[in-house]
Specification:
Oligomer: homodimer
Largest sheet of chain A: 4 strands, mixed
Shape of chain A: globular
Strand content of chain A: 25-35%
Structural class of chain A: alpha+beta
Order of helices and strands of chain A: HEEHEEEEEEH
Radius of gyration of chain A: 18 Å
Distance between the termini of chain A: 39 Å
Largest interface: A-B, 67 and 67 residues
Chain lengths: 159, 159
Amino acid sequence: MNDKYPMFAARQSVEQVEEGTELAPKFDADGLMPVVTTAAEDGVVLMLGYMNREALAKTIETGEAHYYSRSRQTLWHKGATSGLVQKVIELRIDDDQDAVWLLVDVAGGASCHVGYRSCFYRSVPLGKAEGSPALKFEEQAKTFDPVEVYGDAPNPTKL
Amino acid sequence: MNDKYPMFAARQSVEQVEEGTELAPKFDADGLMPVVTTAAEDGVVLMLGYMNREALAKTIETGEAHYYSRSRQTLWHKGATSGLVQKVIELRIDDDQDAVWLLVDVAGGASCHVGYRSCFYRSVPLGKAEGSPALKFEEQAKTFDPVEVYGDAPNPTKL
């Protein structure tokens, strides 16, 4: 058991972690685990984020997606700025309990800071090719105007 | 451009990375990026894995999912041991190009080394609770017998 987070059990055996019913999550050296967020209605992957212990505990307790923002280095209640809150319909954890899958309903329908519904709005053509393959836009238009929603907040994308 | 991987463009601007059509992926300090793999047929998240440059290049070239195995520290052609090869139907990259989404068809239907179809076979009940919440199994039975398929290969789960 973790004193600060009594909902997290200590990891004691592979069998407990893989086949048991105790929540015994594993965070990486930075205290984070990756999170896949999909739309409950149609299975589209909206984003890939990260949670620390606090974010996972808050998400479970409140039923609203909380992440850890690596660019801002802080707890991030998704939608606090944009209004695009993610209501968690189901939360799943993987075999070795070091990754989470959130199935969500999104207020406003969009999750990507660029303005698209999904962060994964471009596909990569498959097959051998000369040089770099040209990405294809799979969403035809943005769902919202990021400048209107975020104003002059710093862009989280880093080169 | 990357001399060893001419399909990867150099990252030059946020606009290029987010709004452009060049594949300019970003790998973390360990040379990896996270990968979400979903079943093309119904959107179930099958697994969360990692790719290095070689794995991403091979996946694009061959149309079969390749990952980097962190436990074995080697390129991992998924299904090479188990036969559960993942045929990539679509490959997407996210806004800042540091995560991949694979939509796949799986030979044999399963992707989890424990024997379930999805690695995310347990859900976590939401809401405030005393102590640790009891995980709920969302898959009723294993799809295959891991001992038959993997024999005595070491279990990748680490405590």
